[in-house]
Structure formats: C-alpha cells, structure tokens
Amino acid sequence: MSNHSQSQYAPAARVPLIKSPSLRVPRPIELPPDIHPLPDSVTAYFVYPFTLEPHVLTVESARRSTLAAHAARREAYLKAREEEKERRKREALRRIAPGFEPKATPLVPTKRMSGVPGQSSSSSEPGVSSSHEGEHKRTKSVMEELVDQLAAMDSK
Fold it and tell me: Which of 17, 37, 38, 55 makes a 20 to 30 Å CA pair with 2?
C-alpha cells in the first residue's frame, strides 16, 4: 500500500491555507524574575491556627443564643396570634349564641319552671297546672307562660 492511501488527510494536504487579517498570534508569556516557585510539599501551609479557637467558639455560642432567642420570640408571637384569632372567633360565636363554647359539649336547652307564685313544683312536667290533682291536667300555652313570667317580673 502506498503512503497516499494510508493518510486520511491526504486530500486536505493540497488545500492552500490563507491567513485572516483579523487574527494575530499572541505574544509569548514572560514570567517575572522574582516569581516564587511552589514548594515540593504544601502540607506546611495547612496548619490550623488554634489561637483563633476561643474567639470562634464565643462568636458561635453568641450566634446560637441569639438565634434561639429569636426563634422563641417568633414562636410566642405566632402562638399569641393564634390565640387572638381563636378568641375573636369565640367572641363572634358568642355574639350569635351566648354561652357557646366550641370545645365544650353541645348546648342542650333546659325547660325552666315559670316563676309564678301559686304553682306547685311537685308536678311531674314543667308547665303543667297542678292546682287540682284529681282533675284533668291542662298544659299551658307559650303565651300563657310568657304572661305568667311577665306578671312574676312585675310583682318583684
């Protein structure tokens, strides 16, 4: 085989190269005469200055205590905000339903005996007239109870 068939760049060898006027060859780098050469071993440069240790520890402990104080203040502020939000919510609910407490058991209406004098408290049901035990017991209407309560309030 010939040398011509072995080279893959043989066809490119005959292409003329033209130098571009916009390109220039950089100047060679000149080192200053007083340059410090690197030593054979750099382990001597990796020495920790233990004289700085107390300073670093005091600065770090002060930083940690400051961060802890800020975190505690932030937590207290967020807790106070949540409690204020809950208090406002409870107040709004109490304006709608006095005596309402969200965390307590549900409110259960209770029947009260009307405060009218002359009514016996030994009756089995509240709101039932018991002036005559043997006769038919008649329940009072809501209006009658209201009138009786108003009369009792006026008499006081």
Answer: 17
